[in-house]
Design goal:
Number of helices: 6
Radius of gyration: 17 Å
Order of helices and strands: EEEEEEEEHEHEEHHEEEHH
Number of domains: 1
Helix content: 10-25%
Shape: globular
Low-confidence stretches: 200-218
CATH topology: M1 Pyruvate Kinase, Domain 3
Structural class: alpha+beta
CATH architecture: Beta Barrel
Largest sheet: 7 strands, mixed, barrel
Mean pLDDT: 89
CATH class: Mainly Beta
């Protein structure tokens, strides 16, 4: 496997970041809540709140207003290098995490879907495997986020170039997992090679059982 970087931010979306109807929809990152620990499962994520309670992300399948009823976009990841590129284009309003990914890792460059396609693994600071994640697709850009990032009106053709810039994973990547575990700020993200992607999970299996017990007790 190849190390990509350290997790520098974890967060949940308490409610939708897009409000309004049809072409009047607007984006605002206010519902994002940074947390130090995520509980990640095939259904989505919970964040550990400041009072020790588990708070559900709107993309979790159990959320009453879930944005993920089919289980296809319950987890997401972004990278600091992508934020650097967005900040260079749109300005200082682009703060780390404003695009809404659950996991953000420090990586001082942009990466592509092809680079991540074999899958990701989350490792403890000591190198123990916590969780494996399949990379499903890029998070495609939307008009509300692009309009918010621009902060002013532009001609349609210019707006289209900004949408195109935000493609190819700039807005992050959608993930899925077959196991469950807690992950923390300070853990590491690595990309698997093809051989590792097809191997038995081994230690990750025991991590699943431990993580599930911790979640039920919480």
């Amino acid at each position: 496997m190849q190390s990509l970087g350290t997790i520098v931010r974890l967060q949940i979306q308490r409610s939708s970041l897009k409000t309004g109807v049809s072409r009047a929809r607007v984006y605002h990152p206010a519902p994002l809540l940074p947390v130090s620990v995520l509980y990640v499962s095939p259904d989505g994520v919970f964040g550990l709140g400041p009072d020790g309670s588990w708070l559900i992300d709107i993309h979790h399948r159990a959320h009453p207003d879930s944005k993920n009823p089919g289980g296809e976009n319950g987890i997401s990841i972004g990278f600091s290098g992508h934020y650097d590129a967005m900040r260079e284009r749109f300005g200082d309003r682009i703060e780390l995490g404003c695009a809404g990914e659950n996991i953000i890792a420090e990586l001082p460059r942009r990466c592509t879907l092809d680079e991540l396609r074999a899958g990701l693994v989350i490792l403890s600071p000591a190198g123990a495997e916590r969780l494996r994640l399949r990379v499903l697709d890029v998070a495609h850009p939307c008009k509300p986020f692009t309009g918010w990032a621009l902060a002013h009106t532009v001609e349609p053709e210019i707006f289209k170039t900004h949408l195109q810039f935000l493609e190819d994973g700039t807005r992050g990547f959608l993930l899925a997992t077959e196991t469950a575990a807690r992950i923390s700020v300070g853990d590491h993200v690595a990309v698997l090679d093809e051989r590792e992607a097809g191997s038995e999970k081994g230690e990750a299996g025991s991590g699943k059982r431990e993580g599930e017990n911790e979640k039920r007790e919480a």
